[in-house]
Amino acid sequence: MLGIPTKLKRTKGNNMNEKTLDLIEPELSVKVLKVTGQKSSRKRILDMGLTPGTRVDVIRRAPLGDPVEFKLKGYNLSLRKREAETVLVEVVE
Amino acid sequence: MTDKITVALTGNPNVGKTSIFNAITGSKQHVGNWPGVTVERKIGKRVHNDIEMEIVDLPGTYSLTAYSLDEIIARDFIIEEKPDIVVQVIDATNLERNMYLTTQLMELGVKLIIALNMTDLALAKGDSIDSEKMQEFLEVPVISTIGSKGNGIEGLLDAVADELHKTRVTENIFTYDSDIETRGEELEKVLNNDPYFAHYPSRWFSMKLLEGDENILKKAKESESYPEIEKILNELDADSFEAKIADQRYKTIQTMLRQVCDINTEHLSGSDMVDRVVTNKALGIPIFLSLMWAAFEITFTFATPFMNIIDIFFGWFAETATNLITIPWLSSLVGEGMIAGVGSVLIFLPNILLLFFMLSLMEDSGYMARAAFIMDKIMSKIGLHGKSFIPLVMGFGCNVPAIMATRTIEDTRDRLITILITPFMSCGARLPVYVLLAGAFFGRDAGVVIFSLYALGILVAIVSAKLMRSTILRGEDAPFIMELPSYKIPTLKGSFIHMWERGKIYLKKAGSIILIGVVGVWLLASIPAPGSGGVFASEEVYGTTNSVIGVIGQIIEPLVAPLGFDWRIAVALLFGVVAKEIVVGSMGVLYGAGENEDTLSDILAAGAMTPLAGLGLMVFTLLYAPCFACIGVIKRETGSWKWTLFQLAYGTTLAWTFAFAVYQIGSRIGMLA
Ligand SMILES: Nc1nc2c(ncn2[C@@H]2O[C@H](COP(=O)(O)OP(=O)(O)OP(=O)(O)O)[C@@H](O)[C@H]2O)c(=O)[nH]1
């Protein structure tokens, strides 16, 4: 349809909530969309359970801001921001 | 008739594998709580129902795609050595992630038994798990256990015995989506036609290929049928297959878990509450530092009286022996060589035992992972892992146990760098040297000087780490993907076992190197210089210009002259390799302290040495080759003479350069002259 203004399109598009995991504030929950990044760390991240669709709670950042602690599949995992950056997620309510 | 079989114990890190291993074999083994702490392969024996079982405790692994050295060891053992039975220990409070490994073990087609461990904690948390249903679903025996109490071990061994005589090998109950399965079948066909792959289960191998496992790919490349394999792999979208396979394994697990257990997700665990405080933004660092301080104090202060006792005892022992033996050279060999040598090995034992007791409490409780979490930001700045922090701090007490403590660092490169820079942490034995020299030359400023030396050590360590990271040990930083295991109450027994293990390793592996070094130096100091006409090991020879070491000192004098040192300092530094604090004692002898009531400090201050050379000597003492005990553990922990010698050469070169700079620049600008 020609009539939809581009601005609205952008907000409607699912890109709106898409972010990398390192940017998510503590106490929010997200759903994993995709893991990118270097092969070896990507496989490790997938193996640890961050597969697409998995719900991840962001628990806290370390006192110095990095790494970040997450909870998923009932256990706690920490990633440096550099690794979290390779995980594409969307915020869930 | 007794059967002899091999049973491999596998599982994720921290699931209680070591506890189960200890409960089965009764052997004295390490119990830890830091992911991946088990580095060696531990083997124990147990006879059950007339079956002789050899139990192998494998390092913890999250998946059969191996990343760290630990994991490669574990995986290769299962794949290449084909144990008769594989027991996977599972943490019942963390089923979903633990069972990811189960799916892969089942794919491998090994005879699998599941030890459902930590059932006490799962119960306390409010989960209910139907192990019978789980057993039906997986078609493998599932035995509930409590590793720390030894519950369920007999049942587990019964299951091992039963399973042995069954011909049925775990069927593969996991099927993937049809696109994966189709590709998998194509690959399996190729694999089955090539005898090269006969050693590997073809389904598992083909799934690993589809996942893009680099290790497996490398193996496949060596086969003749690789072109065919490559053709199939090129046709598919590797990235999406990789994610899909992981995803579908987890989906299958979820499906099963919904049927066999009821997990209480509402529960805010004790662990979460502890972490709110312990890793809190404001409190995290102060708490960590206080704990570090306490551990440090306990290790090094509590150890002091024991060390004094050892010191006094060996001093007395050496003296008594010297007096009893009338042949002079023999009495010196026994007294100054052998007894002193054994003493210098044992003197570190209190430190080592106490430090490892403390570390083990921290590991078993789960705090160690938090410590790494808190300190990682700082350590990553020099290319290291958060886990490197603790060994480095402990280095201020004594480098020897500190280097042994690097065992907890998983990445080999990180570990090696940590070992190589730990000797720059100024240990307690170097302090007497500073106190003497700074006191003699700098009077009221002694404190500032000593503090600067500590700071210099840290600086050198940091710069060296960065340098090594960008040159000889180059490479991507290891990804930081670390589990924060839930807190557990450590068992005293476990910590004692751990402490004793480390002590034994030290005595066995490092002890001999230290002893050889000490006796070697004694020989150099005792053998009369050729042509001097002295008597072997006599007082006129020992350590003087009439001895080989004195001659060596004179030979190397030109080397150290630009630093403002004479041959006596050169000899004292050679003695210092036995133990750094000996530098002071040797200087005393060489400068004739005590002969006319003059203390060494008076003699030095009176002009035996310039203050600049004194400062240079302190810097030299800080940086040059560590003591024999330290050299012994570096060899033991790196497993390589090459790296050990590298540390010696690197440190000594730095020491020379810094002392040279101090003396030369200082004299030019006329400082302290
Ligand atoms: N409550 C409870 N604690 C357990 C149980 N099994 C082990 N533990 C404790 O869990 C901690 C870790 O146990 P380990 O046996 O060292 O675990 P592991 O799997 O060998 O760990 P790594 O060697 O680090 O891979 C220790 O503090 C044990 O005392 C159990 O069934 N119940």
From TrEMBL, chain A:
The keyword rRNA-binding does not apply. GO terms for molecular function: transition metal ion binding. Keywords: Iron. Residues 19-91 form the Ferrous iron transporter FeoA-like domain. The keyword Iron applies. InterPro entries: Fe-transptr_FeoA-like (IPR007167), FeoA (IPR052713), FeoA_core_dom (IPR038157), Transcriptional_repressor_C (IPR008988). Signal peptide: none annotated. PANTHER family: FE(2+) TRANSPORT PROTEIN A. This is Ferrous iron transport protein A. It comes from Methanolobus profundi. The lineage of its organism: Archaea, Methanobacteriati, Methanobacteriota, Stenosarchaea group, Methanomicrobia.
From TrEMBL, chain B:
It is found in: Cell inner membrane. Its main location: membrane. Mg(2+) 1 binds at residue 22. Keywords: Cell inner membrane, Cell membrane, GTP-binding, Ion transport, Iron, Iron transport, Magnesium, Membrane, Metal-binding, Nucleotide-binding, Transmembrane, Transmembrane helix, Transport. GO terms for cellular component: plasma membrane. GO terms for molecular function: ferrous iron transmembrane transporter activity; GTP binding; metal ion binding. Mg(2+) 2 binds at residues 23, 25-26. The lineage of its organism: Archaea, Methanobacteriati, Methanobacteriota, Stenosarchaea group, Methanomicrobia. This is Ferrous iron transport protein B. PROSITE patterns: G_FEOB. It comes from Methanolobus profundi.
